[in-house]
Amino acid sequence: MQTTLFSCPHATIGAGAGAASPGSALGRPHGDGLRRALYGIRRCGLRAGLLWAALLLAGCAGLPEIGLFMQPAQRTDRFVLPDPDTDVVGQVQYVVARDEDTLPDFARRYGLGYDEIVAANPDVDPWLPGAGTRVVLPTRFVLPDAPREGIVLNLPALRLFYYPPVEEGEPRVVVTHPVGIGREGWRTPVGRMRIIQKTENPAWRPPASIRREHAKRGDPLPAVVPAGPDNPLGSHAMRLSRPSYLLHGTNKPYGVGMRVSHGCVRLYPEDISRLFAEVPVGTDVHIVNQPYLAGWQDGVLHLEAHAPLAEDAKRWQGSLAPMEKVLRSASTDAPDAVDWEQAQTVARAARGLPVPVGAGSPDPDQVIAAARRAPRVPPWAEPLPQPD
């Protein structure tokens, strides 16, 4: 799909993948491009030549603004696992912001949480990225080190992975969504659990501890909050075998991808509705604490690093020993496979992007520079409610 800005028998300029004609100035040295502009004036008229010149003067950075070299959007919530040894799924992508965009906008469109997209773009203002800003989408993931069955939730990554039962003749897949988890002092527990109950349009019965907390703030809660727009559980809830804890939706989606709950796990409304339909009662849930994830792809070891939970960061005091332990375990059969200087750089940056850490591998900046460009609004993005 492309929108043609100008077309003549000798040149076509448009917005969309493949819009530039073969042999055009785009992607060539500017000297050749200037000759092409003069050729356009001679053969197609002044309008063509001026348009070519404007593109050249704008520079390569300006080309994405008219949609050149756009690649088709790829879903970021479901991936096929070609074989049981698949460790890394997805691709790093980027979008080009407009004035009205925010990082939370892009996060929700592409199935990311707030902390994820902020960590991947440390130098970008989350609320005012600015027109023309390149925003990295961390839509590539190293799968957690856990059995690939049921639900696996990695707390530091603020991300859930669901491995549906494999249908005969169908490939194995993994479904992934960002989550919000318990804040410091209300930590989401780790360990093995299972789904014991599913409820649509749940009522919320806040525990006494939460009611006391709200009362101290001058915001008293009723004994029961009925289903509806004021219910913090959203439209769907799945109770864990630790009965105080739920996987549920939310009426405050901006908290997804952050540590903001009293220990429950919250998802975007559109994500919980799909997950609720797929996950049966009795599904295993394995909650892990893995800020450092190692996985192999194409014979190269990759490291994905997240900021440790605040409670762990206090204990570790900046030590990277947990990261080193993970990489040594993953490279037992190839002890020379790790560039430790690169691994330390990736771990300290904690941008949540899988980066190769083998000798001679591209550094994090090169990985980001090679990202594929995605549209600002992918075709699956649901229209978001607008404020009154």
Task: Looking at this protein, list some descriptive labels.
388 residues; alpha+beta; L,D-transpeptidase catalytic domain-like; 3 domains; nine-stranded mixed sheet; three-stranded mixed sheet; 21 strands; disordered N terminus
Overall description:
The chain has 10 helices and 21 strands. It is an alpha+beta fold and 388 residues long. Helix 1 packs antiparallel against helix 2 and helix 3 packs across helix 4. The longest helix is centred in the N-terminal third of the chain and has 15 residues. It is globular and about 60 Å long. The two termini are 34 Å apart. The N terminus is likely disordered.
What is shown here, in short?
The chain is α+β, with helices and mostly antiparallel strands and 388 residues long. 24% of the residues lie in helices and 24% in strands.
- The domain tally reads 3
The CATH C-level class name of the largest domain: Mainly Beta
Low-confidence region ranges: 1-44, 47-67
Helix fraction by DSSP (H/I, runs of at least 4):
10-25%
The portion of residues forming beta strands comes to 15-25%
CATH 2nd-level architecture of the largest domain: Beta Barrel
Number of helical elements: 10
Radius of gyration, in angstroms, nearest whole number: 24 Å
- The global form is globular
- Strands of the widest sheet, in order across it, are 3-10-9-8-17-12-13-14-16
The CATH superfamily of the largest domain is L,D-transpeptidase catalytic domain-like
User: Can you give the mean pLDDT?
Assistant: 83
Through-space gap between termini: 34 Å
| Backbone structural class | alpha+beta
CATH topology tier name of the largest domain:
L,D-transpeptidase catalytic domain-like
Largest sheet: 9 strands, mixed
Annotation, overall tally of beta strands:
21
